[in-house]
Amino acid sequence: MHDIPLFDSLTHPTLDGTWIGSVPCKNTLRELESEMAANNVEWAFAVGMKDIGGYSLEAYADYIRSASQKVFPIAYYDFDESDTGREIVRKLENISRCGYSGIKVHPGFSRIDLRSEVLREVLCEAGSRKLPVLLCTFLHRQIHNAIPRSYLDFGPLLGSLPQISKIILIHGGDVNLLALMEISRPYRNVLLDLSFTLCRYEGSSVDLDIRYLLRHFDQRICVGSDNPQFSLAQFRRRFDELAAGLDREKTLNAAHRNLQSFIGAA
């Protein structure tokens, strides 16, 4: 299994090598590249996070472009509920001009109601600019406020988007994994991502859910580490364990083909 290269859907190398809270790490781009080489992770999204590790839109894009061409920069979308359509366009134009491969929208950090019309506009406008959206689905931790959110809210949101809007549901709903797969299944422009979830719930019933998705929805999922929360060695080990005995074509789809195709990098 180790001979199959992986595409890591979620890594967070920072400009100054730091990370959130007390996570001990040397969280640099060079460290990421070293881990990639050691664990046969051939491609990765490098995702910037506002106010973390010295992030700025222009500097982060330049930083990631100094890596190999197989590390793709993803911009943090600075969401504001008061933004007009013109402001949304301006922000996305800046992101495109910097050479990003997509945007990250974080409902927790940005205090977003999933029923927001502004959120829908952002996702639609990103689609028109061929920018895939990494949309975080981890809803348990109310980081900034008590805005009510439910994984069920993703259904109406996804159903309101045009097919040109490409959405990656980051963390796959975590413990609501199968439910979010059923919600997103009608939409071919949506991938269910297993970063964080793949490693976080080791030994739980979620392992059975992941194996089920690998067998039956291999063309609709992608995988990742959420590095530095989890190392690429942990990511590699978990993928190999959960995909053991799986048909090789299905394994290749989940390992890298789906994400390559999704962003036109196949």
Structure characterization notes:
- This protein is 39% helix and 14% strand.
- The protein has helices spanning 29-38, 57-65, 85-97, 107-110, 117-128, 154-159, 177-184, 197-200, 206-216, 232-242, 248-263; strands spanning 6-11, 41-47, 71-76, 102-105, 133-136, 167-170, 190-193, 221-222.
- An 8-stranded parallel beta sheet has the order 1-2-3-4-5-6-7-8, sandwiched between helices.
- Helix 3 (85-97) links the parallel strand 3 (71-76) and strand 4 (102-105).
Overall CATH class? Alpha Beta
Radius of gyration: 17 Å
In round numbers, the mean pLDDT is 93
Distance between the termini: 20 Å
Sheet with the most strands? 8 strands, parallel
Total count of strands? 8
Report the order of strands and helices: EHEHEHEHHEHEHEHHEHH
In the CATH hierarchy, the architecture is Alpha-Beta Barrel
Strands in their spatial order, largest beta sheet: 1-2-3-4-5-6-7-8
Can I get a quick summary?
By secondary structure, this protein is α/β, with parallel strands linked by helices.
